[in-house]
Amino acid sequence: MIRPAVPSAAAAEGVAITEGYAPGALAAVVGLHMDYYGPCWGFGLPFEAKVAQDLAAFLSRLDPARDLFVVARDDAGAVLGSISVDGARPGTTDAHLRWFIVADAARGTGLGRRLLFQAMAFCDDRRVARTYLTTFAGLDAARHLYENVGFALVSTSDLDQWSGGVREQRFERPYGARPADQR
After folding, report:
1. Which of 52, 122, 123, 134 could pair with 128 as two cysteines, CB 3.0-4.6 Å apart?
2. Average pLDDT for 3-8
3. CB count in 10 Å sphere of residue 123
4. Beta-sheet strands, E only, within the chain
5. Angle, to 10 degrees, between the axis of helix 25-41 and the axis of helix 45-60?
6. Whole-prediction pTM value?
């Protein structure tokens, strides 16, 4: 069941960060992905369809006790970023960090760091044994953020689930890993 968005305490500097689905969020998050990955990486319809289908399926089963969907908006309501945690299912110990994106206009403002810290706090509050993400080589700014919160590269493969001609990477973060600047 899709639940309405709930404002978080993290609203500051003209950016409101909300947890949960709100009308239009699905399309906006898919749009942010295409705004970046289309022109910068040449990703087209196969990537857009995968993001839209996977995100729609996630939102349809969103359970706030184990899943997190966060959207950041500016004062005018434009979506500036998002991040999600596809939580651990019964009988599993891993959560999947997904759909982490920041609009071009908000890059370098600290918004990505705020979103990532919120997602990691969510995982740690639930004592998720391991959080993982899949990405690809070449996203150096994102990799820096991931490593700063305790993720480590554990594998690289030729698998290209995004149909963009890239090498997939898997990063993992154990429960309670500290940000690099707090170690």
Report:
1. 123
2. 44
3. 24
4. 6-7, 15-19, 68-74, 79-86, 94-102, 130-136, 152-157, 168-174
5. 150
6. 0.86
- Average of per-residue pLDDT across 53-78: 95
CA distance 87 to 96: 6
Average pLDDT, the chain: 87
CB-CB contact of 166 with 160 (8 Å)? yes
Which of the following CATH numbers is that of domain 6-129: 3.40.630.30, 1.20.1250.20, 2.30.110.10, 1.10.600.10?
3.40.630.30
Token representation of residue 62:
């969103």
**Other beta carbons less than 10 A from residue 13's beta carbon:** 9
Scan for tokens 């069941």, then name that residue.
1
N residues, the chain:
183
Report whether pLDDT(115) > 50.
yes
